[in-house]
Amino acid sequence: MAFLLRHKLVIGATLSAIVIALLIVVGGSKSKEKAPAAAPPPANVEVAQVALQNVPIYSEWIGSLDGMVNAEIRAQVTGYLLRQSYKEGSFVRKGQLLFEIDPRPFQAALDQAKGDLARAQAQLAQANSQLLQAQAQLAQAEANQVKAQLDADRYTPLAKEKAVTAQELDNAVQANIAAKAQVKAANAGVETAKSAIVAANAAVEASRATVKTAELNLSFTKITSPIDGVAGIAQAQVGNLIQPNGGALTTVSTLDPIKAYFTLSEQEYLAYTRRDSIQKKWGAGASGLELELVLADGSTFPQKGKFFVADRQVDQKTGSIRLAGTFPNPGNTLRPGQYARVRAITSMKEGALLVPQRAVTELQGSYRVAVVGNDNKVNIRPVKVGPRVGSMWVIEDGLKPDERVVAEGTQKVRAEVTVNPIPFK
Hints:
The protein is an alpha+beta fold. Helix content is 36%, strand content 35%.
């Protein structure tokens, strides 16, 4: 009995201990659930101060590039293309051979023209010889006529005195008349010879012109570059029949400097020309306006350009005027046809408020920034934005100088949230 009693007491004590332990655990769990959660630390955000400074205002226009000089290489004679003598896309020099057309037909035409010229020159020499003969005959006829005239003059008074017979006088007069006829015929022979010389001279000049034309056509079989520049891809192949009206064989462009075309609206152009500070920079041939070139990948071309020329007229269909600038292009990096944006400083804004572009967020056409106050609390504030200047944005309204705005981490903040500001890098 004593053993059973002790056994019951041990079991009861054990159960009591287990119950107490369970109560302690449950109580501890409840106490932990009732303890308040610790507040998260403020989010780290990078802030930048609103800067106050004078900034240049850029205007930007859509443009395209073109060679300073673009020479279309065309054939001037018809013939079969014999060879291509340049490497496509390479730099060629003025006078360098690009293409050659089969010269044999033109060489044959030149040889024939030279033969015709030789014949014409021979005919001219013959005409000159005939003229000399005609002039000699004329001189002889004139001498005979002078003698006949003297005989007639001498016999006339002698016949009156019966010193000579009437028959002798009549013979002298008839001889004088015949001599005069011979002079007249000799003069006609001289004139005929002179006419033959004129015709022969004309034939010689025509033959010389034909020779020059044949020589020129033969020279046209060698097609050379008229300028220094980069030659494009050939548009004809060896063996093709080339004709003068068959289109360009290739194009050679001067690329350094390279030209950039862009357009301004008529109102914009008038506004720029009326400003005193840049009035003289937009005239034809002016070069004072410095230009920058933004390429298709968003990078800025390192070489600065200058204003080159404004077109003579405004396009009546679009109401815009075409302008051009030139840019140094060492190494011919830029090529005609490339898309680019041309920009230039067109005004200066005094006392502009600037913030990093990353600090400005757009929502349904409105803009806002997160302003961090002295207590490090965030205030979401709407702003009116102006032009962009590099990586900065001009704020027209909504901010004050030296205020702090969130430039990195805007997605982490909301109104009245406390943040841990660190300087924007």
